Amino acid sequence: MPHKYLFRRATPDDADAIRELVHAAYAKWVDIIQREPLPMRTDYRQAVTAHRIDLLYDDDQLVALIEMIPAVDHLLIENVAVRPSAQGAGHGRLLMRHADLLAQSMGLPGVRLYTNALFTENIRFYRRLGYRVDREEPFLDGALVHMSKRV
């Protein structure tokens, strides 16, 4: 039976579910960077009003989300999180395509994101989707990798 996917814009009522999903998705990185990644520290009650967070449901189950911030000349992807039990099923690609289409619908020429330099599997994933590394910058005890792509 085919999957039924649904995107829905998050509201403040979704903050607890968002926090739970983000904590599950980012838990694997804690040992690698020796601290909680910033998305694990975010106040999602505030974020859902300040940013655009779209939730992805697969057969009525919340499996992933994407947090975005429109700017004058690009759409910034602030956070991409996929529930560990749903990883590898194409949800990340679906989220990233969703961001591309949103940027296009807003008349924005590109999408940008940043990630921890130690999240090498994420960097490889973004490169496969056409993102290029723009720069690296020191951040806390490591580095951030800034990436972008035209849409």
Automatic annotation (TrEMBL):
Residues 5-151 form the N-acetyltransferase domain. Signal peptide: none annotated. The keyword Transferase applies. It holds the Pfam family Acetyltransf_7. This is GCN5-related N-acetyltransferase. The lineage of its organism: Bacteria, Bacillati, Actinomycetota, Actinomycetes, Pseudonocardiales. Keywords: Acyltransferase, Transferase. One of its GO terms (molecular function) is acyltransferase activity, transferring groups other than amino-acyl groups. InterPro entries: Acyl_CoA_acyltransferase, Bact_Acetyltransf, GNAT_dom.
